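Whiteboard transcription, Tuesday session. T.W. wrote the structure tokens on the left side:
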């Protein structure tokens, strides 16, 4: 079994977000200590266990100088002897509480190499060791190797994030091959244990974690490249995992600036703004403890298609299909007499009246409302004595254009745009085309017309 001394330090910060800058929060640090059988192996003249204990005591002695921090200890691989070991062998040995440093150090001092290494299980269980997810919750895992129980630390990381804990991990290892280092890519950043700067750097990050948050803001830029656009759904995608991690309704804060978001800095993100049509950012990597601005070009204006309230209750039935000019892809189906917001540019609009109304190359400009008005429809009632086949056509110049088919009902009602129409019909019982009936009718807004197909 290939085992190398690897110390994984996983920082997790309770997930918070909002418009206001958060107040200082208490910091809870959970040590997860590996007491598995392989820790008995030698490393630089001492056992791995002794090396891990030495490092542990350095960490806790340094961090305990900060009296605002509380500590707890979880241990795994410490009760069931290997082989065979127990992949559930993980327990909270010392819970969070004041004045428990001596007890924690004593438990680590007494630890003897015993069992196996269940990293995923221990990480997942650690979420239950914290009192809540409102504090700055930090997990430090000390282990001499990689997962031995078929688990996946990446999945554990995701589970903890789903509980409101965001991981900020670091991996310190000795002599790991590129392939072995790669297994920890989803967990965090790799450091070599022989790097003398690793310990003070990571200790400093732990001490400052409660003060320095990893933040970002999404600037939805208007046509003047000002971050003035807002009230749009934005989704953060993890580029490598090819899945979304966060989903917000963008807002401007009380100072009229884009809202500050508190995010996990590990993934590489792409942010999609669900404008119409959607726009997106370039790939962006956040910097730990720093503020990152993510710009997205999203200049928008408004479109409304309306007609006055008429004599008939039909306005809510009419929809408008919105497409980019010259394309057939439907971007939105907008209700008549409503206003929707669109990225600036030209659009083709198909209004689902009878007959259809097509308005092409309608331009939407920054912060302006493009208002299109169509006339009210009129009502046509078609009556016949028996079932038949037929249709309604509109006369334009010297041509007839199909509008809609008639049904087999004897009384039918249609709402038609103003114009000159022809109703053609033949009773089903009559098998000759010569029995076709043609009626002409003029439809005007807000007026009712009746066509009787038996006279």
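and on the right, the sequence the group agreed on:
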């Amino acid at each position: 079994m290939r085992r190398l001394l690897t110390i994984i330090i996983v920082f997790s910060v309770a997930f918070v977000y909002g418009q206001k800058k958060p107040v200082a929060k208490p910091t809870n640090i959970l040590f997860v200590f590996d007491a598995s059988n392989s820790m008995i192996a030698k490393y630089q003249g001492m056992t791995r266990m002794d090396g891990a204990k030495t490092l542990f005591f350095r960490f806790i002695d340094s961090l305990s100088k900060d009296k605002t921090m509380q500590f707890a200890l979880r241990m795994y691989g410490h009760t069931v002897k290997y082989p065979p070991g127990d992949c559930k062998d993980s327990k909270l040995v010392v819970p969070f509480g004041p004045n428990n440093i001596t007890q924690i150090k004593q438990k680590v001092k007494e630890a003897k190499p015993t069992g196996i290494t269940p990293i995923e299980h221990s990480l997942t269980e650690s979420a239950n060791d914290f009192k809540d997810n409102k504090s700055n919750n930090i997990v430090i895992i000390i282990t001499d190797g990689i997962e031995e129980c078929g688990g996946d630390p990446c999945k554990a990381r995701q589970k903890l994030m789903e509980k409101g804990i965001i991981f900020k991990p670091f991996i310190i290892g000795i002599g790991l091959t590129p392939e072995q280092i790669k297994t920890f890519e989803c967990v965090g950043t790799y450091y070599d244990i022989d790097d003398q700067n690793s310990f003070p750097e990571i200790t400093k990050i732990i001490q400052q974690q409660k003060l320095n948050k990893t933040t970002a803001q999404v600037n939805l830029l208007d046509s003047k490249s000002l971050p003035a656009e807002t009230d749009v759904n934005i989704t953060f995608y993890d580029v490598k995992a090819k899945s979304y991690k966060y989903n917000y309704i963008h807002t401007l804060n009380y100072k009229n600036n884009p809202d500050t978001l508190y995010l996990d800095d590990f993934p590489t993100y792409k942010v999609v703004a669900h404008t119409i049509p959607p726009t997106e950012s370039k790939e962006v990597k956040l910097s730990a403890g720093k503020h990152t601005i993510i710009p997205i070009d999203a200049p928008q204006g408004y479109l409304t298609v309306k007609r006055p309230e008429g004599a008939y209750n039909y306005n809510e039935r009419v929809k408008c299909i919105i497409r980019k000019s010259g394309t057939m892809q439907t971007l939105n189906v907008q209700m008549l007499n409503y206003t929707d917001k669109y990225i600036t540019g030209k659009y083709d609009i198909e209004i689902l009246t009878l007959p259809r109304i097509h308005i092409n190359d309608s331009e939407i400009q920054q912060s302006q409302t493009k208002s299109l008005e169509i006339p009210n429809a009129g009502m046509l009632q078609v009556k016949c004595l028996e079932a038949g086949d037929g249709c309604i056509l509109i006369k334009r110049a010297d041509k007839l254009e199909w509008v809609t088919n008639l049904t087999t009902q004897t009384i039918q009602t249609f709402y038609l745009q103003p114009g000159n129409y022809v109703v053609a019909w033949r009773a089903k019982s009559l098998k000759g085309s010569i029995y076709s009936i043609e009626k002409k009718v003029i439809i005007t807004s807000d007026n009712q017309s009746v066509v009787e197909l038996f006279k």
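Someone added at the bottom: The helical segments are 48-63, 101-110, 119-126, 153-162, 178-182, 198-208.
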